[in-house]
Design a protein that fits this description.
This protein has about 210 residues and is mainly alpha-helical. The chain is built from 10 helices and 5 strands; from the N terminus they run ααααβββαββααααα. The protein has one domain: Orthogonal Bundle (hpI Integrase, Chain A). The chain is globular, with a radius of gyration of 17 Å. The N and C termini lie far apart (about 45 Å). This is Site-specific integrase. It comes from Synechococcus elongatus PCC 11802. Keywords: DNA recombination, DNA-binding. Pfam families: Phage_integrase (PF00589).
Length: about 210
């Protein structure tokens, strides 16, 4: 079943300006399914809140409450505190993690959401997981998926944030609203960030 899903995915655009590949919602869900449980949750938070993975890995359990996630000024790139609403798919995933251990698809790794302290502890059990560690696992997972198709070529830790912004844009969400979600300071910065296909630009002209 999963093999059929992988083969049925169209290859996304690999950006030639050095930006991370933007994935479709279907591709994001498949990638999440294949990531180990702890990394899956980190990636899901990054996607559903359009956050940078570095901000996600610095989260503490206390930052998630009342249907929101608070990214503090100490961890955000802009040095401002940002509050993200938790959408339904992420709320359901968090609920699964709270109920008990979540297994990976190979069933050899588990993860339970901690009630306090760092959400994503590193191997030493004292500090948060590093971005380099997360990136290594993400790359191995994408390499595995690319054995069936090359749909995940160009994916990086930034793909989750970029995929979220691009998906919202393609669904017609105004740029101002997307910027509120992503935390971009200016619309011009956000526009450079979006993955716009040539055919989308062509269709836009036809609307004039």
């Amino acid at each position: 079943m999963v093999e059929e899903q992988r083969k049925g995915l169209a290859m996304p655009k690999v950006n030639r300006s050095g930006q991370a590949t933007a994935l479709s919602p279907e591709q994001v869900r498949l990638l999440l399914d294949y990531l180990p449980p702890k990394h899956r949750l980190a990636a899901a938070i990054a996607y559903y809140t359009a956050a940078r993975i570095g901000e996600v890995l610095q989260l503490r359990a206390e930052a998630i409450a009342a249907g929101e996630i608070v990214f503090t000024c100490q961890t955000t790139k802009t040095k401002t505190t940002r509050t993200a609403r938790i959408p339904t798919p992420l709320a359901e995933l968090l609920s699964d993690y709270r109920r008990g251990s979540v297994y990976g698809w190979h069933h050899h790794q588990t993860y339970t959401l901690p009630r306090k302290g760092w959400l994503f502890l590193g191997a030493d059990g004292k500090r948060p997981m590093s971005r380099r560690t997360f990136d290594a696992v993400l790359r191995r997972t994408c390499d595995s998926l690319n054995l069936a198709s090359d749909a995940f070529v160009g994916v990086s830790t930034h793909s989750f944030r970029r995929s979220a912004a691009t998906t919202l844009h393609r669904k017609g969400v105004p740029l101002q609203a997307i910027a509120r979600v992503t935390g971009h300071a200016t619309l011009s910065a956000l526009q450079r960030y979006l993955d716009v296909h040539a055919e989308e630009a062509a269709r836009a002209v036809e609307l004039l």
